[in-house]
């Protein structure tokens, strides 16, 4: 399923028509209509706006476009900038491999 098909499926599930979607995203209704008629996809810079309008995560929107065979399991978390979770993740990504292993051992001990 291409991204635009997924968008229309989510819109249908939410009872949202193209005009409502266009108003919520600021994307011209003719552009949205082109996605359906021409089987094209939105540009990458519109994905977050679309996700906000549909109240879905980028993963939910793109999940059918991520290859499942050979790619391994796709698993991630989203942390908003300015949150304590974000700050921890930013600090953690700067750690050495050995320090990450120590941190992982410490976190397991918190259970």
Radius of gyration, Cα only, in angstroms? Answer: 19 Å
Dominant shape: elongated
Helix/strand structural class: mainly alpha
CATH superfamily of the largest domain: lambda repressor-like DNA-binding domains
Q: Helices and strands, in N-to-C order? A: HHHHHHH
Q: Major sheet, described briefly? A: none
Report the CATH architecture of the largest domain.
Answer: Orthogonal Bundle
**According to CATH, what is the class of the largest domain?**
Mainly Alpha
* Percent range of helical residues: 55-70%
Mean pLDDT over the residues: 87
Q: What is the total domain count?
A: 2
Tally of individual helices:
7
Assembly state (oligomeric): single chain
Which consecutive residue ranges, at least 5 long each, have pLDDT under 50? none
Task: Lay out the secondary structure.
Blueprint: H1 3-13, H2 18-25, H3 29-38, H4 47-54, H5 58-62, H6 84-93, H7 97-109
Word description of this protein:
The protein is mainly alpha-helical and 111 residues long. It has two domains: 3-65, 434 Repressor (Amino-terminal Domain) (Orthogonal Bundle); 79-111. The protein contains seven helices and no strands. It starts with a helix and ends with a helix. The model has no long low-confidence stretch (mean pLDDT 87).
